[in-house]
Amino acid sequence: QQQVKQSPQSLIVQKGGISIINCAYENTAFDYFPWYQQFPGKGPALLIAIRPDVSEKKEGRFTISFNKSAKQFSLHIMDSQPGDSATYFCAASATYNQGGKLIFGQGTELSVKP
Amino acid sequence: NAGVTQTPKFRILKIGQSMTLQCAQDMNHNYMYWYRQDPGMGLKLIYYSVGAGITDKGEVPNGYNVSRSTTEDFPLRLELAAPSQTSVYFCASSSQGVSTEAFFGQGTRLTVV
Questions:
Q1: Lesser CB count within 10 Å: N end or C end of chain B?
Q2: Cα A105 vs. chain centroid, distance in angstroms?
Q3: Each residue of A39-54: pLDDT tens digit?
Q4: Cβ(A99)–Cβ(A82) under 8 Å?
């Protein structure tokens, strides 16, 4: 019930293309869904986050789509750039779960080709 | 703007040795976390703390111990290191826990041989 499943494990996209990463969860108590971006040799950094009271959130070229009934959410990167090449993690946490414990997906290694 | 600082950045341990991974944050955050990252497995929570003097287990606590004597510091202790503890360890902190940004350190790459 605590799992967050992420796919694909790796993704290659041409510059200017759309990158799509999907996540699915089981625990219906999850109510916070962030995406983290990690560059090699660095720690993860928050990219964008959504709560289940909205179905979509957009920040620049990055959009989260959220489907509460399907228990799925996805990250869309529009006009992908080589500088977006990184590992992306989806995560989830529940308000009842004291301490803000984030449950992470397995990660997607994105490579954007020039 | 130091943020979350982890030391050391790299370490090689022999089986059975012990060590402490240090983590310090200067943002006055109450919540702190230790994660380990293994290839293809994402980040797994080892231990977390909601304030000085309070710690609790995460998903994978076996073989580790923590303490939180101050708001700033959250060291992770490995006793009797095993090859299964070869991993990259990340410390993180946040101001309120749920629904707020977690700030990560740059990680400690540990190899147990």
A1: N
A2: 8
A3: 999 999 999 999 988 9
A4: no
